[in-house]
Structures are given as structure tokens and as C-alpha cells.
Write a structure and sequence with these properties.
The chain has helices spanning 7-20, 40-50, 52-62, 66-74; strands spanning 79-82, 85-88. With 96 residues, the protein is mainly alpha-helical. It is elongated, with a radius of gyration of 19 Å.
């Protein structure tokens, strides 16, 4: 049966299972941020719902830049390329 065992068919089967039995929702590809590898609106909504005091503090502090600040800090590139090698840098002292 040609075409039955293709990568596309495999991906479709996985997506179908995750969205019907796995509790996942299919995201809107236009809302996906490929640089940060996440859906920004989902992350912001989750933070606002689960950490309202912290979100309010950040919003008061950063005003219009609160969302970008949160997403940038959350997705801070800890693994960077240096001379062809992957290195992990020490986290900022504010994380400790």
C-alpha cells in the first residue's frame, strides 16, 4: 500500500491522537512564535491566570513591555553556540 506509511501520515496520526484522546488542542500556526518556540498568547494567559499578583507587579513595572519582557526572560537563550560548541551559561543572579 504505497503512501500509507509516510511521514505526513505518521504526523497526522499523532496529531489526531493528541487532539482527540491526549487533551491537546491544535494551535493556530499564525499565532506561533518560531523564534521563541511557543504560542505567546497562551503563555501570557497562563501566567495571568496562575500568577495574577506577579503579573500585576510586572505589568506595573514594565507597562507596555510586560509581555515581551516576560517572554524574553522565559525564553532567554541559555544554550548558545560558541566556536561551534554548545555552552550553557550560568543563570542570572536574580534566578537564584
Amino acid at each position: 500500500m504505497p503512501g500509507q506509511y509516510t511521514e505526513h501520515a505518521f504526523e497526522t496520526a499523532i496529531e489526531h491522537h493528541l487532539t482527540t484522546a491526549g487533551g491537546y488542542e491544535k494551535g493556530d500556526r499564525d499565532a506561533f512564535d518560531p523564534v521563541r518556540a511557543l504560542f505567546p498568547s497562551d503563555v501570557i494567559a497562563f501566567i495571568q491566570a496562575t500568577q495574577p499578583r506577579e503579573w500585576e507587579y510586572l505589568s506595573n513595572l514594565q507597562k507596555d513591555k510586560a509581555e515581551d519582557t516576560l517572554l524574553d526572560d522565559l525564553c532567554r537563550v541559555e544554550l548558545q553556540q560558541k566556536n561551534g560548541h554548545t555552552v550553557k551559561f550560568k543563570p542570572p543572579s536574580s534566578w537564584l
